[in-house]
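Possible regression after last week's pipeline update?

I re-ran a chain I had predicted before the update to compare outputs. Posting the input and the new output here so someone can diff against the archived version. Not blocking, just want to make sure nothing changed silently.
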Amino acid sequence: MGSSLHPDKITLEDFSHYLNLYPTFLPPNIHSLETFRRDELPRTVAQRKKDGEAFLEKEEVVKLVEWKLKFGKFRPTLLPLVRSNAPSLVRNTTAKAFSLFTSQGLDGVKKAVAELSSLKGIGPATASLLLSVCEPAEVPFFGDEVFVWVMLGGKKGKIGYTAKEYSSFVEKVGEVTGRLGVTAEEVEKAGYAVVRGEGEVGEGKKGKKRKEGPEEAVEVEKGEPKRKRSTVEQEGKLEKKRKQTLLMAEEKPVPAASAPKREKRGKARPLSTGQQLVT
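New output (post-update):
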């Protein structure tokens, strides 16, 4: 990626060019969800805010997560976790998070992310997605591509997916919006197109794939017993190995059970005073 495309140096003309290219890099079969995420739901939330309180319904959160899974990495266990949240809990939690942001501005983003992360299946990145539909012009989605562009200058690197990291990201996006006179949503789109068009995302040093960060671990493991999760490709390989192991176990002859050793019998001991025999 050329230095002229660095977020600190990119011109408004080049920025607008990549912003216009954004739709061409979208994954297939996402366009209806993209319209919902970018247009329909923000209008709905804005109207609710005018009526007195901004919030999200459970099914709206589910659709946002469906968008996220098609837009980025697919994690099959994430959606069931999100669906396991009670509708009233989703509505109350999102209302509280939106009010924190509305009353405290960007200073309330960290608190709002923490509030949303109390829901099952919601980590900092998904929480940022929910916040972004409330204030698209000010709150950016914590996506891989835009983070790599804004925070790492388009270079490959590790993403931690922490709330602290997201706060720094929001501040940096604010610098870009202030310099170019654009919105946070436009930075998200342009950054996505720049990285997709000029370089790859998701690799660490020496071309190695980066490890999953807390965001992935939180979203996969919330509500489940804690255990390490690999990437989707690795999960497929592990599942294949498990099936092969089970097949091998079924084919092996089961050895005859050896007779249990007889215990040496001693003399019966009399029950002590007050001791009862439990049957």
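Follow-up from reviewer: compared with the archived run. The CA atoms of residues 158 and 211 lie 8 Å apart. Marking as no regression found.
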